[in-house]
UniProtKB/TrEMBL annotation, chain A:
Pfam families: PadR. Residues 24-91 form the Transcription regulator PadR N-terminal domain. This is PadR family transcriptional regulator.
Automatic annotation (TrEMBL), chain B:
Keywords: Membrane, Transmembrane, Transmembrane helix. Pfam families: HAAS. It comes from Ornithinibacillus bavariensis. This is Uncharacterized protein. The chain crosses the membrane at residues 82-103, 115-143, 181-203, 223-240, 252-276, 310-328. It comes from the Bacteria.
Length: 119, 333
C-alpha cells in the first residue's frame, strides 16, 4: 500500500462518522436528497450520493429524521427533516464533536511532546 | 432512461419487498435530479446517465448500503475454524483419494492410467462437494450459535466474569480434532470407493495376489449411507471440539448425544444381516493362509465369529470413554 492508498483508506473511515453530523446539521428545514449533496458540496463536505441516500433512510428508520413526499412539484421528491429526537441528538453530538476537536487539537499541536513530562 | 430503470430494478430487487416501491420512487427522483443538474437546459445524453450510475456505485453495493446490515452464511467469528476445517478436509480427501489410487494400482496394475484419470476426475468433482458439505455444516453451527452471540452482546461487559484460562488438561490441543477429521475423511473416501479395500491382503514373491474382504460387497451398498452418515457425525463432533478449544459441560453434552446416537447406528449396521463377508473363512483357507482344522484356523474362526461383538464392545468402550474423559476434563479447574 502506498502513501496515497493509506490516506484514502483512513479518510474513508474518518468521513464515515462525520457525514452523519454534516447531514443532521443541514436538516433543520426539509431538504431532499440531491439538494443535500449539492449543499454539502458547496460547504466543502464531499458526500457520495450513493452513500447519502441510504444514510438518510437509515436515519429515518432510527427515528432521527422524518420524511414526507412532496408531489406538488413536477417531480415528486422525498423531503427529510430532523425529528424532535433528531434535533436533540444533533445538539448533543455537536457538544461531543467540539470536545473531540479540542482534544485532538491538543494532541496534534503538541506533536507527542509531553509538557508535563520528566523534563 | 432504460438504463435508469434497469438500475433501479437491480437495486430494489435485492431489497425487502416492503421497501421496494418507496426506495424505487426516491431513487428515481434523485437520479433525475442528478441528470438534470448535468444536462442543465439541454437534453440528457447516454453518457450523462452512464456517469450518474457510475457515481452511484454498483446495484449490489447500493442495495447493501440500503440494507445497512451484512448477511452472513458463516459469521466472522466462525470464519477461521471454517478455513481450517476446509483445508483439513480438502487435504485429507486428496490423501484418501491418493490411497485409493495406490490400492487400485496394486490390485490392478494393468490399468494404472485409468486409475490415475479417475483419481484426477474424482478430485475435480469431489472438491466442490466437500466445500459444499463443510459450508453446510458451518452454516448449521452458525445458525445454532447465532442466538448465543446475541445474548452475549446484551450482557454487560464485566471483567470479573472473564473466563479463567482453562486448566491445561481441559484444553483440547488442535492436533487432536484435526487428526480425527483427517482420519474420518480418509475412511469416508475409502468406503465411497469400495468396501473391498477393507480386508486381508495377500502378497507373494510375485507381488500382490488377492484381497479377502471383511465386508459383504453385495449387501454393503445398503449400509453405505449409514456408514457415511456416521462418519459425517463424527466429523461434526471433531469440528465442535476444534471450535470450542476446551472441554466444557456443553461440549460433553453434545459429545454424549452424538456418541449415543452413533452407537445405536453402529449397532444397527453391524448386526444387520449379511454385513460381513460370508465366505471370509473359506477364502482364507483357499488362499492357503490357514489350514482347515488346524489350531490357527480355530483361533481365527473364533475371532471372526465374535467380531461383531468385539467391535460393538470396542465402540462402546471408546465412545463411553470419550464422554467420561470429556466430563472429567470439563470438571477440572
Amino acid at each position: 500500500m502506498n502513501e496515497k492508498e493509506h490516506i484514502d483508506k483512513l479518510m474513508l473511515e474518518l468521513r464515515r462518522g462525520t457525514i452523519t453530523i454534516g447531514v443532521l446539521s443541514q436538516l433543520s428545514s426539509p431538504k431532499y436528497g440531491y439538494s443535500l449533496v449539492s449543499l454539502l458540496e458547496e460547504k466543502g463536505v464531499h458526500v457520495e450520493p450513493g452513500t447519502l441516500y441510504p444514510l438518510l433512510r437509515r436515519l429515518e428508520k432510527q427515528g432521527l429524521l422524518e420524511s414526507k413526499w412532496d408531489t406538488n412539484e413536477a417531480r415528486p421528491r422525498k423531503y427529510y427533516v430532523l425529528s424532535e429526537v433528531g434535533q436533540k441528538v444533533f445538539e448533543k453530538l455537536c457538544v461531543e464533536w467540539e470536545s473531540i476537536v479540542q482534544s485532538l487539537e491538543g494532541l496534534i499541536t503538541n506533536k507527542g511532546v509531553d509538557k508535563n513530562g520528566d523534563g | 432512461m432504460e438504463m435508469v430503470n434497469r438500475y433501479i430494478y437491480a437495486v430494489t430487487q435485492k431489497l425487502p419487498q416492503s421497501q421496494r416501491e418507496d426506495i424505487a420512487a426516491e431513487l428515481r427522483s434523485l437520479i433525475e435530479d442528478m441528470l438534470e443538474e448535468r444536462a442543465g437546459a439541454g437534453d440528457i445524453s447516454d453518457e450523462m446517465v452512464n456517469e450518474v450510475l457510475l457515481e452511484l456505485g454498483s446495484p449490489r453495493e447500493m442495495a447493501q448500503k440500503y440494507r445497512g446490515t451484512k448477511k452472513y452464511i458463516i459469521g466472522p467469528e466462525l470464519y477461521d475454524p471454517f478455513l481450517i476445517v476446509l483445508k483439513i478436509v480438502l487435504i485429507s480427501m486428496s490423501v484418501g483419494l491418493g490411497i485409493v489410487f495406490v490400492i487400485e494400482s496394486v490390485l490392478d496394475p494393468a490399468n494404472i492410467l485409468d486409475h490415475f484419470v479417475s483419481f484426477i476426475v474424482t478430485i475435480v468433482t469431489g472438491f466442490p462437494q466437500a466445500l459444499g458439505w463443510v459450508t453446510f455444516t458451518f452454516m448449521l453451527i452458525h445458525f445454532g450459535g447465532g442466538l448465543k452471540a446475541d445474548e452475549l452482546k446484551l450482557e454487560k461487559w464485566d471483567p470479573t466474569k472473564l473466563q479463567p484460562i482453562p486448566h491445561p488438561k481441559k484444553q483440547i490441543k488442535r492436533y487432536e480434532p484435526i487428526t480425527g477429521i483427517v482420519f474420518y475423511v480418509i475412511i469416508i473416501v475409502l468406503f465411497a470407493f469400495s468396501s473391498n479395500f477393507f480386508g486381508i491382503y495377500r502378497f507373494s514373491d510375485a507381488g500382490f495376489q488377492q484381497v479377502m474382504p471383511f465386508l459383504n460387497e453385495e449387501s454393503f451398498s445398503q449400509y453405505m449411507p449409514f456408514v457415511i452418515l456416521l462418519l459425517a457425525i463424527f466429523i461434526v463432533k471433531e469440528c465442535l471440539k476444534l471450535i470450542s478449544g476446551k472441554w466444557t459441560m456443553k461440549l460433553v453434552a453434545y459429545t454424549a448425544v452424538i456418541n449415543i446416537f452413533s452407537l445405536v447406528v453402529v449397532f444397527f449396521i453391524i448386526t444387520g444381516p449379511a454385513f460381513w463377508n460370508p465366505n471370509f473363512m473359506m477364502e482364507l483357507v483357499q488362499a492357503g493362509l490357514v489350514t482347515e482344522g488346524s489350531e490357527g484356523f480355530r483361533v481365527v474362526e473364533s475371532i471372526w465369529v465374535n467380531s461383531t461383538k468385539i467391535i460393538v464392545a470396542l465402540f462402546l468402550i471408546g465412545l463411553v470413554w470419550d464422554i467420561v474423559d470429556g466430563f472429567i476434563k470439563a470438571r477440572k479447574d
